[in-house]
Amino acid sequence: MSLLVIVRHGQSQWNLENKFTGDIDVPLTEAGREEARAAGRKLKHIVFDQAFTSTLSRAEETLSIILEDIGQTDIPVIKDSAMNERSYGELQGLNKKEMADKYGNEQVAIWRRSYDVQPPGGESLKDTAARVIPFYQQAIEPLIIAGRNVLVVAHGNSLRALMMYLENISPQHIAEINIPTGEPRVYTFSSHLKLVDALYL
Prior knowledge:
The chain is α/β, with parallel strands linked by helices. It has helices spanning 13-16, 30-42, 57-69, 96-103, 105-113, 125-145, 156-167, 171-174; strands at 2-8, 50-53, 77-79, 150-154, 185-189, 195-200. The two termini are 18 Å apart.
């Protein structure tokens, strides 16, 4: 048996301000740091062999806090932009409610949750999956096959793309899924990458 644990970074400053963040490097809030510490408390029973994160500081800091909290700061960590949040293009830095008032709730929901619709100048979830899934297959799957326990701390949409792959979620169903900040989701695999279980701690 091997484990893969995914965690969306804790609350960022622009999460707090209800802004489209995308791939802008925005720091955690103190509440986000506490979410990371809470995630660490839930993961104390797991011994990890390797960790992965994005190149954005809110994910990197969340991972650092978790590893410190579980006393595993010595494990190898790989940071890669393939796991960065999707770009929201022209929407980045703008208030979500103001954009809903301007363009309508339905249009904003499509930009945020749909699989293949790009926000103006940005990436769709399909675009994000096109970089996340090959990275997962090349860098992470071999570790799972080898029986290692892996921790991935990334972002709402890079992790939604990964969830689609791991759980065989349809493009229609993924539109209904939002990954909460700071809550570990644990995947248990048997040999040959057979998914046994997936649950939030």
